[in-house]
Design a protein that fits this description.
The chain is mostly helical. It contains three helices and no strands. It is elongated, with a radius of gyration of 33 Å.
């Protein structure tokens, strides 16, 4: 009679092949994340990923509309900046004329 031997093979999870990142958290943040994860029925890792994804999505989201008042205000500001920029560009010439007209004749 043959005796069968069972060889233990550790189970490989797909997450083991994913990128890993060691993170230092400020005091108390780990507990806050743990509490939020528990409240949302997630692991701490899933909670962190969810929050990072939401933050990145919000950062890249463009509003669906721009209120007309806001657009009008932006156009007014653009016109003001253009006018001020022209005045700044004209300053050197205006200063030369001003200094030139106030020169006293030399004796």
């Amino acid at each position: 009679m043959a005796i069968s031997q069972q060889v233990y093979m550790p189970r490989q999870f797909p997450s083991r092949a994913l990128d890993k990142f060691v993170l230092r958290l400020p005091e108390g943040m780990r507990d806050s994340i743990s509490t939020s994860a528990r409240n949302n029925n997630r692991t701490m890792n899933a909670e962190i990923i969810s929050r990072l994804e939401a933050s990145l999505e919000a950062e890249n989201k463009v509003p669906d509309f721009v209120p007309s008042a806001t657009l009008s205000e932006v156009m007014d500001i653009k016109q003001t900046i253009t006018a001020l920029s022209k005045r700044i560009d004209d300053l050197p010439e205006r200063l030369r004329k001003l200094v030139g007209s106030k020169k006293r004749p030399t004796r």
